[in-house]
Write a structure and sequence with these properties.
Layout (H helix, E strand, L loop, with lengths): L2 H4 L3 H13 L7 H11 L5 H26 L2
């Protein structure tokens, strides 16, 4: 089911994940801002939840790819 993930090269996925985690650099990365909102209990608007998921998606894909690669050995 996730064979398409095996076709994505690690370097590309790492670069995209780092970019999405750091974007935008100023004034504060969205991931940090949304995690602070989550901690404070103010992450309630659907657009904010979507934004958090959107910025974390490449990192989650990278983690899933690494799990699939190293668990099959």
């Amino acid at each position: 089911m996730l064979e398409w993930l095996d076709n994505i090269p690690y370097p590309l996925l790492i670069v995209v994940a780092l970019f999405f985690l750091a974007a935008p650099v100023r004034p504060m990365p969205h991931v940090v801002e949304k995690l602070i909102m989550l901690k404070n209990g103010t992450l309630t608007r659907p657009i904010d939840i979507f934004d958090l998921v959107f910025h974390l998606l490449p990192t989650l894909l990278l983690a899933l790819k690494a799990y699939r690669t190293f668990s099959s050995r």
